[in-house]
Amino acid sequence: MSLIPLGFWAASAGGGIGYFLKILFGAGNTEQNRSIITDLDGNVFSAGSTASTDSGRRDSVVTKSAPDGSVTFANSFTGTGTSSFQSLKLGSSGDIFVGGTDTSSAVSRGPGVMKLNASGVIQWQRRLISGYSDGYEVALDSSDNVFFVGRDYDASTAYVAMLVKYNSAGTLQFKTGLNSGGNDRFSGLALDSSANAYASGTGED
After folding, report:
1. In angstroms, rounded to a whole number, what is the distance separating the alpha carbons of residues 165 and 187?
2. How many CB atoms within 10 Å of residue 119?
3. How does pLDDT run across 115-130, given as a tens digit for each residue?
4. In this model, does residue 165 exceed pLDDT 90?
5. Does the reported pTM lie above 0.85?
6. DSSP 126-147
7. What CA–CA distance (Å, rounded) separates 198 from 205?
8. What whole-number distance in Å separates Cα of residue 146 and Cα of residue 60?
9. Is 153 helix (H, G, I), strand (E, B) or coil?
10. Across residues 122-144, what is the average pLDDT?
């Protein structure tokens, strides 16, 4: 695999720079790191996209690095079209949940969720086929049920703010939406202790 820059700074609590990690996949096209999180052991996980793999498209990327900055894995995922992860969360057993947008053709763009194990191996992936739609933020409850927000295209109402729930095995539990008469989307998501979901975003009258 060739190399691309996909990096982040690691700073101490006092503000000092610990290290700068630069994970490389290819040859210098535009790269995007959209989400970063740490676990209790100090491992660092990041998600985004790269345009520098051999697929000729933008591919989703997930990385894991040890506390000393050494790379545990850096995996890119090539579909039938452009894809990008926007959000990353860790499950109760160390599984990795990522969400974003996948474009499988020139006329089909849909939100997608993927579950990987702690070694970065795909356990399941789900994509909603709904035209020109996008996924933004993922949240997990205590049972690793997956909540996902974005925007869903409806030809009669333009974009609808969307909330989706999958169980931990990837089975769709519900998909619901909210439209104020224009182009709406949910981009923020939080869960309370009872797994009630709170979504925020933008709307047009």
Report:
1. 15
2. 11
3. 999 999 999 988 876 6
4. yes
5. no
6. EE---SB-EEEEEEE-TT--EE
7. 21
8. 19
9. strand
10. 86
